[in-house]
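Q: What would this chain look like folded?
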Amino acid sequence: MDTDLAELSQAIGAACLQHRLLLATAESCTGGWVSQVITHTAGSSSWFDRGFVTYSNEAKIEMLGVPPETLQAFGAVSAQTAAEMAVGALKNSNAMFSLAITGIAGPAGGSPGKPVGTVCFAWCRLGELAATETAVFAGDREAIRRQAAIHALHGLLLRLDAA
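A: My prediction, written as structure tokens:
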């Protein structure tokens, strides 16, 4: 674990503890990277409830309750799907705050409208609407996944600090 990610996780933990929030994650293209960063932090069990790795559409439907209609209308890589993932993580956990990530890490799978490196994010507090963002990252598969994990964690920290 590099120092930047470790420090980011510690700051998130401090914010969760300060606001008495439990966190859940719903990850697709990052394959649990965010959960791994979080659980690297000693004591994270007091503020991290669980992580869902929902790589397939079926997993998104079964584990998070993402409506098949959302996947059909917008695709797995969309702000709408990310928002549904974040909401589903809250519904299927004891958490009060969630983050979700879905994207195209490559090297294949991109399209003109959604090139490789496109990643959609959502952050949601229980009882509120999910906030979403879409970013396009450059690099190989590993670089895209790492940038997505960092972006998700930074976005989470911003929202926790505003809680």
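The chain has one domain: 3-161.
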